[in-house]
Queue: 3 jobs
Job 1
Amino acid sequence: CKEELSQVAKGQSAQLRDFSEFSRRLDVMEKASEDSVSKSREHLRDTSKSLSERISEVEERLLRTAEQHDVSLLSVRNELVRVAGAAQDMAPEVEQACRRLIGE
């Protein structure tokens, strides 16, 4: 009976060692998983920050381009107004010249 108890105790001791080793490995895997998640989160934060900076740069460039475009459009508009004004001023002279040509 003592020998049977000794065998059972040895078996339970072996199972306890196996369970303890399994638990240790599980802890190692859990720690590795936490490290991996932490690194992934850090990578996502860095990527998000980088993308935000890039978006800001593109927005600034678009604003500068839009401002330049607006200045260009304003310049063209002003030139058109100037030319239209000059054409109005010259209309009587052009009309007289046309009458002379037709009359000749």
Note: Residues 38 and 93 are 82 Å apart (CA to CA).
Job 2
Amino acid sequence: ELLDQHAPPRHTARANTGSLAKLLTWNEEKPLQPGEVLCHQSDYITMKLLHNKKKCGSGPQQKRVIRSDWHNCLKLGYDVQNLEWPSWIEACLADA
């Protein structure tokens, strides 16, 4: 429902089985806690292979960030043309 309200028609992030839909569903079932992050499997494996002791997407405390590939970002709704998260994503997450 949130994706129908916010995501542009025919956008890749609208898929019911996509990453953003899964994140929104998980948040409905059990709200995400501060500090929890979404991490794609490929990013998690890359992080583990390169930096075994760091958390995926960890912030300043861990000083380690793994950058995702375009494919994973597209599934979450990232705007690769403008290289930014679109405003509809922020509105969707705010409504979640």
Note: DSSP finds five helices and no strands in the chain.
Job 3
Amino acid sequence: ILATMIRHKYPRLRCFAFEPPGCVYDEALCNFSESFITSFVRHDDIVPRLAPANADALRDEFFELLARVKIPKFKLFRDIRDIVNDDDLSRRNLAVLRATESTPRD
């Protein structure tokens, strides 16, 4: 943000942004700054991918998954702290989750 604000004073300015949040600039500001700002994002870091639509999707998926739980929630939250391998995880998910199509919708 600072680079964008002082660009007019320092026209040769270059900015290297490490893991910048993705929801700060609109499209016009992105287009303006692409010639002097270079962003670095590692793997699946959540900060650069933050955006209102992504937060809404995460919230919706969380509540959808929570609605599929067919055991008392306190048992689930106690059990998910245990480290399990992929096969055990699949078995545990089958034991505690309803199928998506049979999830209550009220």
Note: Helices lie at 2-6, 27-33, 52-68, 73-79, 86-96.
